Structure prediction request, 571 residues.
Amino acid sequence: MKRIHILPPELAQKIAAGEVIERPVSVVKELVENSLDAEATEIRVDLLDGGNKLIKVRDNGLGMSPEDAALCFRRHSTSKIAGEEDLERISTLGFRGEALASISAVSRLTLKTFDGNGDRGTEIEREGDKLLHVTDIAFPRGTSVEVRELFFNLPARRKFLRSDRSELSFIAKYLTNAALAYPGVRFILAHGPREVLSCPEVTGLRERIFQLYGRAVLDGLMEVDYREGECGVRGFASRPLRGRADRNHQFFYVNARPVKDRTLQAALNQAYSGMLEKDRSAEAFLFLSVPFSEVDVNVHPAKAEVRFRDPQAIFRLVLRSVGQAALRVSGIKEVYSPGKDPRGPAPRVEEEGLPLDFAAFQGVRKRRPEEPANFEPSQAEPARPGPAVLGQYLNMYIVAVSDEGVFVIDQHNAHERVLYEKYLEVDRKRSWPRKMLLIPVIMEFPPSGVLSFEENRGLFEDAGFLVEGMGGRSYSLKEHPDVFKAEEAREIFLGLLEEVGREKAAGRREKLLAAMACKSAIKAGEVLPMAKMEYLVDELFRTSQPSLCPHGRPVVVKIDRATIDKGLRRN
Prediction:
């Protein structure tokens, strides 16, 4: 029996389209990239129902001739590359010729375009893989693409889309990233009659950051400008000792292309090792210029990732660029390698004739002489639910024992679990204790933050945050939960705003409480007294799920008695 067959062309095209077009923001990304490649200086995006009903992208770029307009919907039709050698030096955002073909395969699409030659433009209307009509029209120079009823012919795909406001938030975040990369381009995003984002063209990145994030963010940044041969890094990053409690403001661009890359993120984190306060992460708006032949942008269907020919060289480039910038703003004359402890290697000490690595053991607390050696509760003390605490290791882990074995407990994750369950109980009663600020804290939200706040205003108020609008993207924080310090409230709220905005509606309350627990829990590196460790371990083993933190990370590693006996050959 024949089991293998060839898919019909129309079905194969829909499957291929799904690799490029996942949701409304994918459509916006592909169309905006085409507009930027067409040298547009103004790009307007109009949406209805979060892009599910309508996405319209209009630009004042080069436009297309009637002949090019007729070809642009054919798969792999492109003006960006002509031969295999061009793949080694891709300088444009788009190059595969898949965008319009993929979008039109899953929507009802209308294209209007004019290249300035002659006196008439072109209008093409399509429905799925069907061409409905081609018409000459009067149209200014540039291109407009209207995408209606995305996935009208793929109802299964439509079911996986989020709420209209969530899809709108994804689009606002993408356009924010694009606006950072192209400060000389005006970007407008409108949802129905309302303008969500309006960024007039500015002279440079500094002005664009101020435009999008406000003075508070800009004042915490230092300028980065560094070159090594043909490669360079420019942009802005956190000043030493500043930074944020999360990594939501880490943006990387390679040859003006926004990318997600672990090499770049690891280099940034290492560069700030020893330069930030405890539990802070760097903000970064970094633009790398790399020879086109040294980076492969053709490794991801949505072009969100890149591959470097020499990732270690790129790692060192980012490391040195941030290090040199930090030296300039700090006024330090000595040059040291960023990411290393400037105090030098940890000393080695001798104890009872055995060499010890002091750095590895400096966090171990020894039992106080007055403490009992057997750790068994006295007659006056009630039996504890958890194992007996021995001490703290590396100021990160609590070591405890019971008849079952040895337990290594992550102190931050353990406290998260304890706080999360307490917060759940408080939230069920809607009885959050609040602290009123004598002087309200002024905050500037990014465009996506405005959308997240509007969608989750009631959720934040239930959790103890009272925030009121002041016009535009300015808001004032007037009350916050009493579990936070006043100086922490602003930053914690902004971090929660970003995290909750990424969640589906059904899980937002739990996500908010988990994030609050994370931000108020004790941190790795914090020295804990014995009484606090014992209390934390006891509370952990009273929770409903002591093995996992609210984010799903493990809390406890258990080394059972059998494993110890086997390792020491006592069985």
Remarks:
- The first strand starts at residue 42 and ends at 48.
- The CA atoms of residues 124 and 134 lie 5 Å apart.
- The chain has three domains: 9-199, 205-330, 355-571.
- The domain at 355-571 is CATH 3.30.1540.20 (formyl-coa transferase, domain 3).
